[in-house]
Amino acid sequence: MGKNSSNLRPRDGRRRNLVVKSPLKLKLIAGLRSLFILSLVGLISLSAAAAAIAGASQFTIDQARQQSDGIEVTIAGVVTVPSGWFRSANLDQGFVIQDATGGLYITTPQGLPLSLGESVEVSGVLGNDGHGQRWVKLKECQRRGSALSTVVPKSVSAQVAGQQMDGQLVTVQGKIVRSLQDDAPYGDRLWIEDDTGEIQIYIPKSTAIYPQNLPFLQLGQKIQVTGLSSQFDDNDEVIPRRRADIQLVDGIRR
Q: Does any domain span residue 9?
């Protein structure tokens, strides 16, 4: 483009009648062609960039947990702790979701009508609560049309629950080695021990479990606890969600 018509040569070497255009028309045509090409390239580049950005924000929960604070992510999972169940301990209306790869706490100041076992997709910014718990600060939450597989708590040792299962539902067993302590107004706590070590059981007041009313929570009793594996400063902990999450082992529930 942009060459004078006098320099053009037919490929077969034979003379052909050429339509001679004025220099002004040639410049106009060349300019329009250049503009079209640049526009096309720009559209392709923008589309590719948009696709790359959209694709980069989609993560499994395990992948999201490995990203740096401040990164915006979109993840999907099953609700394992409904909105606000831990509000007395975490001072928000957060909830927890889990997929096949891991789990994450979703912090939000407003309660959401989410049911246990419901499938959702959330978008938000990765961060932490300042005490060791990773979370996503919620920006958007949508119910998913297709149901994901049911989350079954994993039965693990105290050591594994504390070091490897953060954000996931777990079941641990052990003997009570430290008595129930009131941590008002946030919750109550006790400690159990198995062959691998101790782990704290933290019971938020907002769960309405009322552990003081459970007479089997005594030193030396062996109990089974299902709940969220989490961390608060140097304390690994399992947080039960409801009364049925705490059971006396080889005994009768009271």
A: no
What is the number of structural domains in the chain?
3
At residue 250, the pLDDT reads 79
Contact criterion met (CB below 8 Å) for 161 and 170: yes
| Rounded CA separation 120/147 (Å) | 9
Model confidence band, residue 37 (pLDDT cutoffs 50, 70, 90): very low
d(CA 246, CA 209): 9
Alpha helical stretches, state H, 57-85? 61-65
Cβ-defined contacts of 189-197 (< 8 Å, 24+): 189/237, 190/217, 192/158, 192/223, 192/225, 193/158, 194/157, 194/158, 195/157, 196/157, 196/158, 196/159, 196/160, 197/157, 197/158, 197/159, 197/162
Q: What is the pLDDT of residue 57?
A: 76
163 and 216 within one domain: yes
The whole-number pLDDT of residue 145 equals 73
The pLDDT assigned to 251 comes to 61
State the Cα–Cα distance between residues 227 and 169, nearest whole angstrom.
5
Domain that holds residue 168: 154-248
Residue 236's DSSP bridge partners are 231
